[in-house]
Amino acid sequence: MSDRFVVLSGCSGGGKSTLLNELRRRGHATFDEPGRRIVQEETVKGGTALPWVDLEAFARRAIEVALNDREEARDQTGWVFFDRGLVDAVTALNYFSTEPSTKRLGLTHRYHPTVFFTPPWPEIYHPDAERKLGWEEAVAEYERLAKAYPKLGYRIVILPKVSVEQRADAVLTELVTSQRWTADTVR
């Protein structure tokens, strides 16, 4: 487990990528959402591992990308932020696949115990070329993830609907506070 690896998850269109960009601007290592990168790659090459064509292939590819991101992150120092992570991809595969659960991946490859969730926020939600999910689908995905993370032992902090700067401050404050709490309980 790496307590330096911090996941931003939650609702599609809830501001995760904007928050990630703010954390990057502040000098933190970041990894963009695997799903968006896969859609971009598949679109360029005419592939079919797209969530609206072959969701199972898309989820399998997202697992692969998330594992590669974790490996690459090992070389980074300090906090490393991920716009979605392995648990998101495993949750999607488990929901849409008839295969046995891949929960072991989520248990083996751990992130920081606190996961930051962007809640459903209809005022900022908008589909685009890479996110064709409708509002109801986005909320359903959020609900699945809100159940999956705690089942794997993660604590969810739901971010407030405030400016991106305030959200970044909230994330960093929570991480420092949880780090202090952990150090104090070990003594």
From TrEMBL:
Pfam families: AAA_28
Gene3D superfamilies reported in the protein's UniProt record: P-loop containing nucleotide triphosphate hydrolases (3.40.50.300)
Span of domain NadR/Ttd14 AAA: 6-167
Coiled-coil regions, chain positions: none
The protein, known as: AAA family ATPase
